[in-house]
From TrEMBL:
Protein name stated in the entry: Indoleamine 2,3-dioxygenase
Family of the protein in this entry: Belongs to the indoleamine 2,3-dioxygenase family.
One Pfam match: IDO
GO MF annotations in UniProt: heme binding; indoleamine 2,3-dioxygenase activity; metal ion binding
Function: Produces N-formyl-kynurenine through the oxidation of tryptophan.
Keyword Nuclease assigned: no
């Protein structure tokens, strides 16, 4: 008997890997390629280490958080990150084009990990003065961030972002959340207690911290999105093929089951992340557009003729869950502050190509 997913449709042509085993997708393909098994998650676990040539970057990243993995103060705790970047980080821009798979294609999987670390470093570097201001004199607010990003950060981040077709700034999927988790024990799967962050700004490397809880709860939700993708694709295929109503209804039940699980995961947010702690680690996920800390944008040294650039900050509103559901169900979103990222046509630019 022919399965509906085996019959060519316009949806299957647009998303040829949607019913593939995620593990079979090569690293030269976008790691956020959508499948019914992985949903909007990466097709394989994010890389936790970088190629050896990027060891200077990894060294700084390991020392960067306010509280390091071993519990001792890091560079952001002592406000020394900027000086360390200037003293220790070489310009590795030319190494980006060398990150290829054995068949010579760009290794998008590894490049995403490199982009993640550089974008974490960029936000930390630019916002370190704001973090210091917030901690030493909170009455004066965040103050001003740094308005120039050294080419040792800007160059590799910009080049990898071009290859990945992403804005060169911290993003929800490719940096902050969905490519920033690991499993403490791979045999235990995606149980929440088994999730860990790869990179953090404040106390995120402690799995019990509010920063970790905030990010990992998003990961915990998105791990259930395979059901949404599966259901939506089956509905589109069924309609195109003229299948019976029962087939469509069954696909909607799959979507409902997935959304129910996502809601259950989301309900744990304030158990995993204390609301009062958010304002602290929030400092590092501001963007560099329409923010008082960056009134003139930021110059990426040696990039785009040194003209000031502006990019949105990281936001869970960039997640594709609501966007997919609202398009599928033809929901009209209210024009509110919290829904602006969902209806802003530029939002898709910060998503992986396969999600936009």
């Amino acid at each position: 008997m022919t399965r509906i997913e085996d019959v060519p449709t316009s949806t299957m042509k647009a998303f040829p890997h949607v019913f593939d085993d995620p593990q079979s997708i090569p690293k030269s393909v976008d790691p956020f390629t959508i499948t019914a098994a992985s949903g909007f998650m990466p097709t394989i676990l994010p890389a936790t280490t970088l190629p050896e040539v990027f060891a200077p970057l990894s060294s700084i990243m390991d020392r960067l958080p306010v509280r390091k993995a071993d519990g001792t103060p890091g560079l952001l705790a002592t406000y020394e990150l900027g000086d360390v970047v200037h003293a220790e980080l070489p310009d590795l821009t030319d190494e980006i084009d060398k990150i290829v798979t054995p068949d010579g294609k760009p290794d998008l999987y590894t490049l995403t990990a490199i982009f993640r670390d550089y974008s974490f470093l960029a936000s930390s570097y630019l916002l370190e003065p704001c973090w210091k201001s917030w901690n030493t004199n909170p009455d004066q607010g965040y103050g001003l961030g740094r308005d120039r990003l050294p080419h040792s950060i800007a160059g590799p981040m910009y080049k990898s972002a071009q290859i990945l077709d992403l804005p060169p700034f911290l993003s929800y999927a490719a940096s902050y959340a969905l490519f920033n988790y690991a499993l403490a024990d791979t045999s235990k799967g995606y149980d929440y207690s088994n999730l860990r962050l790869i990179r953090g700004f404040e106390h995120g490397l402690d799995p019990d911290s509010s920063e970790a809880g905030f990010i990992l709860t998003h990961v915990y939700m998105v791990k259930e999105t395979g059901s949404l993708v599966d259901g939506v694709v089956r509905i589109l295929n069924a309609v195109e093929q003229g299948a019976d109503r029962a087939t469509v209804n069954d696909a909607y039940r799959t979507i409902l089951a997935g959304m129910t699980k996502i809601e259950e995961c989301m309900e744990d947010m304030w158990k995993n992340s204390k609301p009062g702690d958010y304002i602290s680690f929030r400092v590092f996920i501001f963007g560099i557009t329409s923010q008082s800390m960056f009134p003139n944008g930021v110059v990426y040294e040696g990039i785009e003729d040194n003209q000031p650039l502006n990019f949105r900050g990281e936001s869970g509103a960039n997640d594709s869950i609501v966007s997919l559901s609202s398009y599928q169900l033809k929901m009209i979103l209210a024009n509110l502050f919290l829904t602006l990222p969902l209806i802003d046509p530029t939002t898709g630019s910060s998503l992986p190509d396969s999600h936009a």
